[in-house]
Amino acid sequence: MNSNRACPDVAIYDTTLRDGTQREGLSLSCDDKIRIAQRLDRFGVSVIEGGWPGSNPKDVEFFSRAKELKWQHANIAAFGSTRRAGIAADEDPQLRALIAAETPVCTLFGKSWTLHVSEVLRTDRDENLAMIEDSVAYIKGQGRRVMYDAEHFFDGFRADPDYAMETLRAAQRGGAEALVLCDTNGGSVPWDVEAVVRKVVDALDMTIGVHTHNDGGLAVANALAAVRGGARQVQGTINGYGERCGNANLCAIIADLELKMSLSCVPRGALKELSEVSHFVAEVANLPPDDHAAYVGRSAFAHKGGVHVSAMRREPTSYQHCDPELVGNTSRVVVSELSGRSNLLSKAEEAGIDVSAGAEAKVLERIKQGEAQGFAYEAAEASVALLLRREDERYRPPFRVIDYHAGVGRRGQGESFAEATVRVEVGGDRVLSAGEGNGPVSAMDDALRKALRPSFPEVAEIHLADYKVRILDGRSGTASTTRVLVDSRCGQHTWSTVGASGNIIEASLQALVDSIEYGLTVCR
């Protein structure tokens, strides 16, 4: 292990950069891989598998750059296969590529399942054992630490347990540092995994690891079961990225090991970085974060039901299995037609709004009526805050839209155009403004900002971050109700607002007005 860190109870072996990139739709540049590796190193994982140097130029470049960098916690591993049948290990070009990567750790995978030996490798059992032992011994003889991944081990053990064990002994004789039992097809169940791992641990005086896939939805459970059986290394990927249904999700595994099983796997204090690491990797991979992911998802500690929120206002642990701050997350209250008064009181407290007696009941009724008309307040917390503020008789909105007009057209055979006019009341004065855009909503936004900018120059700092449209009842065709969700930002502040109408322009204007009205309170 890297001498800069204490030895954990369970070593975390991250394969996001290799196995994770086999996820459909995920592709990382070499720069992306370096950034993720450096973040994982700071987080404190034990081993980072960088790729397969014999498979593509990108991985060759990664290892070339990685060896020039200083790694604080992790050891970098190169991944590859045992030698081909019928040739010597030192003549195998793929094994030579592993050595050329100059990583401190090399991970070799070989066959444990007789089906693969005969039907995939098209060789005999003795040659497969020789391939494993020779390959491990060759890499070990070149001064590298060797991890051996026993591919399809659990399937192989079910088919022929004696031969599956012989493949592990071959890797042990070759000098492997750890033997990793792989549930490659992802079809095992936790009780079988635990039992098989325990048999292996009892039979072999070796560090045993586990590598599970999620095809049965049990990758995390299988990994934890393996630890119960005696495994002391867990392989997986951040956010569970991987081929088919994905690999074991290290974000859940790390939190479960630390919080549920009291086993250290990252440096002390690092667990609170877990949510940030998850979101960082998703951002670099250009994939949306899973809001409902265990521990790290935005909704992992979100509470919507009125009964739940009421109970949590009295005792936070009543509806949370752990303190979200332990994993760098936060508790949230969601407002919808399922909400109770406690939800709104919590939202008012979050926004620093004083609510008069009985006001929350009125706002709650408006929310329920609004959602029946197509509004959705779960993801529009700024609109909820405005509903609460507007219920205060002392609140005066900074502006009011009196009327508007929007149109699109095309002049001759030229390009199409969009124009809009907005009449706004600001401080007792009425302002008429016109705007242009690439569509009617864009033109409306331009006109509204022009009307407000003289009185509220901070409007220029409010930026549209996202604009989402959803048709609520497609069976009604063009008469369907449209819901518009607008995400806005100003500096470090971000917020969301909602509008709904049978007229998409009206729905958009509702969301835009809320966005700017709320933004004026945070951008000043």
- Strand portion: 15-25%
Largest sheet: 8 strands, parallel, barrel
- Secondary structure category: alpha/beta
**Name of the CATH homologous superfamily of the largest domain:** Aldolase class I
Helix content class: 25-40%
CATH architecture descriptor text of the largest domain: Alpha-Beta Barrel
Number of helices: 17
How are strands sequenced across the largest beta sheet?
A: 1-2-3-4-5-6-7-8
CATH topology annotation of the largest domain = TIM Barrel
The CATH C-level name of the largest domain is Alpha Beta
How far from one another are the termini?
52 Å
Number of strands: 16
- The parts where pLDDT drops under 50 for at least 5 residues are 1-5
Give the overall silhouette.
elongated
The Rg value, from CA coordinates, equals 29 Å
Q: Average pLDDT value?
A: 88
Oligomer: single chain
Kindly give the count of domains: 3
Outline the structure in words:
This protein has about 525 residues and is α/β, with parallel strands linked by helices. The protein folds into three domains: about 10-270, TIM Barrel (Alpha-Beta Barrel); about 355-400 and about 465-524, 2-Layer Sandwich (Double Stranded RNA Binding Domain), CATH 3.30.160.340; about 405-455. It has an eight-stranded parallel barrel, surrounded by eight helices. The chain has a three-stranded antiparallel β-sheet with strand order 11-12-13. Strands 14-15-16 form a three-stranded antiparallel β-sheet. The chain is about 40% helix and about 20% strand. The two termini are about 50 Å apart. Helix 1 (about 30-45) packs across helix 2. It has helices at about 30-45, 55-65, 95-100, 115-120, 125-140, 155-160, 160-175, 190-205, 220-230, 250-260, 275-285, 305-315, 340-350, 360-370, 380-390, 440-450, 505-520, and strands spanning about 10-15, 45-50, 75-80, 105-110, 145-150, 180-185, 205-210, 235, 300-305, 330-335, 400-410, 415-425, 430-435, 465-470, 480-490, 495-500. The radius of gyration is 29 Å and the shape is elongated.
